[in-house]
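Hey team,

Sharing the O-antigen ligase-related domain-containing protein run so nobody has to redo it. Sequence (414 residues) first:
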Amino acid sequence: MRIGGVLMTRFTKYGLIFLLIYFPIRQLLAEIYPVTRFAGDIVILALFAQTAIERKRLLVTRYRFILYFFLFLLVGSVSALLTGVIPIAILMQIRAFLIPALLLFVACEMLITKKDIQHLLWISFFMGCALSIHGLIEKLSHRTLLVPETWQSWELAAVNSDRIYGLVANPNVLAVYLMIVFFLTLYLKKLAANYSVLLNIGLVLLAGTILLTYSRGTLIAFGLALLILSLMKKKWNYLVQTALFFSLAIALVYFPIDQITENTGKETSDRFVDMFSEKRIQQSASGGRVFVVKKGVQIFIDHPVVGTGFGTYGSAATVSFESPIYDRYDIPSSMYADNQYMQILVETGIIGTLFMLLFIYQLAKRTRHSYVFFLMLVGLIGSTFYSMLEDKTFTLYFYLAIGFALNQRRLFHE
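Structure output:
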């Protein structure tokens, strides 16, 4: 019995290692080998199945608070069927929300040592540095080196052409991932003081690459979350370190790369200073985030109780499959919400949104005294700018971190 338990524990650990390596490069792998697109989902389902078999009684009694999340999924699914969404689009949306959440059960119930946690942090650090180096090569080569040909031929808007898209093929997703790795590395410094020089170099590299993604929403979300957490705990160490490393990154990475690429920085750097300009607001009103909110409010007023259902407003499912409400509300088929709150409100109405808020409240209540609460704050703030629950790299770390926080009593020293 003990041998079986050891084998299962190793399977879980190796599975998590695979996920930490796989998801940051998932888009690249799927581009080269389309069959790998669902590899992460398969591994997560296998890990959850193992956990469910071993701890089936506890899954029923210990995690009753997650019932709110499943009720949220039920409301969105039933509402979608009533709206006329095709089943495959509904399943696609459920998959995006549900499968990453299963990692919460896995992380909370697995046997893991602090040494294992340290290994996972090192893997995240090296993956983050690898993606940062690739991003700088992409920037310096003007997207001609180490970038798939199909990605090179993308027709990018002028304001986005100088942003680093990276191996995740999205500057905002890349920025969120590198930010998570940045703060995990700050924590790793406490556990691996002998490698502080290497980690400091990596932190400057990570910060510089984040700046070159020009992801304003990411900087706002993580910056505000860090400020709030610092005020709550009355500890300023992480805030000071973050300011220091980003200052060094501006001098050692951002400006040198900008000069080498012979870019005056005007068009791209202005992303940080003109976010509230009249021109930017007009652009948002016609097809950006303000447009998403205005249309969302209009739809919500028409369908306030249970919404229009999954796969109807600004999700990955609506990009892949036609939404039955877009023609009625004059919404372009390519629109992506980039606002998790509005997407949930429109698709699940008051009832579904209430269930999701109750689920988030339960998670926050259980993690508010932990540094994991930082990721909760990031998710809450970042959801104003992005569809955070559809970002696989964010949800990977989000649910793992919460699971480990709830699993602290099971950590032991070897």
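Residues 2-283+336-410 form one domain.

Ping me if you want the raw files.
A.
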